[in-house]
Structure formats: C-alpha cells, structure tokens
C-alpha cells in the first residue's frame, strides 16, 4: 500500500485527480470505478477544471459506479446517478452510454447484482477504482460484517448509515433503507485502487482500517491485502496514526 499524507482536502483532491488523469491519458479507453459522497467531490471538480483547460479527453472513457440506492430512479436528486451527472458526467465529454451504475429500480435484486458483475467483467474489469470510506469503515455500501467474498448485492443499510444520510432527505421515511453495492470481491478485482480519506472524524477508523487487523468488521481493512492500493489522507484523518 502506498500512503500519501497531505495537508488538506484540497491537496488530497488535486493528487487524486492527478492519478486519475495519468490513467486517462495513458489509457484513453480506461474503465474507471467511481464513488460518490463528499470525499471525491473535489477530485471531480479538478478533473472538470483540467477538461475545461483542454488537458483531458473523456470521449472513450467508461465508468462503473460503486453503488446506488434501491428504490430511487436515476432522476431523483439524491440518487447516485444524479450526483455523478451533476459533478462529472454533464461537465465533460463522456458518452452517457458509457457510464454505468446499478439500477435502483431493478425488480429482482439478486439478478441486478449478477447483471452488474457480468457487465463489469464484459467491460474487461476496472482499471482504477476510486473509493471513499464511511465512518464505520464501509466501502461502497459494504457494511461491517459483510463477507469479503461476495459480488454486487443488495444491502440493508445500517441504522448509522441511514441516519448519516438523513440530512439529504426531507423525512426519515424518505431515506432509502437499502442500496446496491459492488461487493468487496468486485472491488478487490480492480487492477488499482485509490482510496481517499479526509477529516478528523475519520481518524479513528482510518487507523483501524489501514493499521489494524484485516477483518470483515472493518470492511476497508481488506484493502491492505490488495497488490496496488494508494491511500491519500489529509493530516486530520492521519492524526491518530
Ligand atoms: C456513502 C457511500 C460511500 C462513501 C461514504 C462516505 O455511504 N456509499 O461510497 O464512501 O458514504 O461518504 P463521505 O465521502 O460523504 O464521507
């Protein structure tokens, strides 16, 4: 695992965007695994800025996102599809037909998981997977206790995650209680993984995930065993290491 400790969120975002840019430039038809959440927002903003400068071309890029809420359509302003369009897809020259997320409205959850993993395989696998991490160490929506060997699946969200998401919805009832997520197995199949962690509120879990034992109780800890992982964390997130 390669660790970059940087002073702040801005530096983390610029470095992450640099690494993604190198991937895009060296392999213009790369398959990028993408993530949502506030962590990667700054990275996407940098990529958009460099695209606007004429330095990046997304015309052949393919993307697969980590997760999507079950029950929300892609048009819903809290869906991850909407997030991706808002922060990246609508701002660069990517072909929307080359951007994939799990279908939140799929009828058969088991079939949807299988379909998504087959799709990733048919695309040739993920070249670089961008990740954030939840406060309980979740990656995608793989909550603590999720076995390491499963593919994309439908997840019952933990109460803490539902509550963390509540700020984005009018009422508790509106907050999705389930989501589709690439499984740990799907994530670990990526050829390269780039995980970003910032903020003091993630310091405790960062220490457990990357400097503690590998255990399903801390899903991100599995990344210690991947052969090509880059962790970029700011001083605040590294403060307990
Ligand atoms: C959600 C997403 C994760 C993300 C996590 C952390 O649960 N499914 O992919 O990493 O939130 O979010 P944030 O970056 O806003 O802290």
Give a brief rundown of this model.
The chain has 241 residues and is α/β, with parallel strands linked by helices.
Explain this structure:
This protein is of the alpha/beta class. The chain has helices at 9-26, 41-52, 80-87, 109-122, 159-165, 184-188, 203-211; strands spanning 2-6, 31-34, 62-65, 67-69, 99-100, 128-131, 153-156, 178-181, 192-197, 229-234. It has a 7-stranded parallel beta sheet, with helices on one face. Strands 4-8-7 form a 3-stranded antiparallel beta sheet. Helix 2 (41-52) links the parallel strand 2 and strand 3. Helix 1 (9-26) crosses helix 2. The longest helix has 18 residues, at 9-26. The relative contact order is 0.18.
**What is the end-to-end distance?**
15 Å
Mean pLDDT: 97
- Gross morphology is globular
> What level of helicity do the residues show?
25-40%
- Poorly predicted sequence stretches spanning 5 or more consecutive residues: none
Order of helices and strands: EHEHEEHEHEEHEHEHE
Q: Kindly estimate the percentage of residues that lie in beta strands according to DSSP.
A: 15-25%
Report the radius of gyration as a whole number of Å: 17 Å
Number of helices: 7
Number of strands: 10
Q: What structural class do you assign from the helix and strand content? A: alpha/beta
Task: Please describe the structure with a list of short key phrases separated by commas or semicolons.
241 residues; 30% helix; 7 helices; three-stranded antiparallel sheet; binds 2-amino-2-deoxy-6-O-phosphono-alpha-D-glucopyranose; seven-stranded parallel sheet
């Amino acid at each position: 695992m390669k660790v970059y400790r940087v002073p702040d969120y801005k530096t983390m975002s610029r470095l992450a965007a640099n690494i993604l840019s190198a991937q895009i430039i060296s392999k213009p038809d790369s398959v990028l695994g993408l993530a949502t959440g506030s962590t990667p927002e700054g990275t996407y903003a940098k990529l958009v800025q460099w695209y606007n400068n004429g330095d990046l071309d997304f015309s052949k890029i393919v993307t697969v996102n980590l997760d999507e809420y079950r029950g929300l359509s892609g048009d819903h302003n809290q869906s991850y599809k909407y997030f991706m369009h808002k922060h990246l897809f609508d701002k660069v020259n990517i072909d929307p037909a080359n951007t994939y997320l799990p279908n939140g409205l799929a009828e058969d959850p088991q079939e949807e998981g299988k379909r998504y993993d087959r799709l990733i395989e048919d695309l040739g696998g993920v070249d670089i997977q961008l990740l954030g991490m939840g406060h309980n160490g979740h990656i995608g929506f793989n909550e603590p206790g999720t076995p390491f060997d499963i593919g994309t699946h439908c997840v019952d969200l933990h109460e803490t995650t539902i509550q963390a998401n509540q700020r984005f919805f009018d009422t508790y009832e509106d907050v999705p209680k389930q989501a589709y997520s690439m499984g740990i197995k799907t994530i670990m199949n990526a050829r390269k993984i780039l995980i970003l962690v910032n903020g003091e509120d993630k310091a405790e879990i960062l220490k457990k995930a990357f400097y503690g034992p590998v255990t399903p109780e801390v899903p991100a800890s599995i990344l210690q065993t991947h052969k090509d992982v880059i962790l970029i964390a700011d001083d605040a997130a590294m403060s307990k290491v």
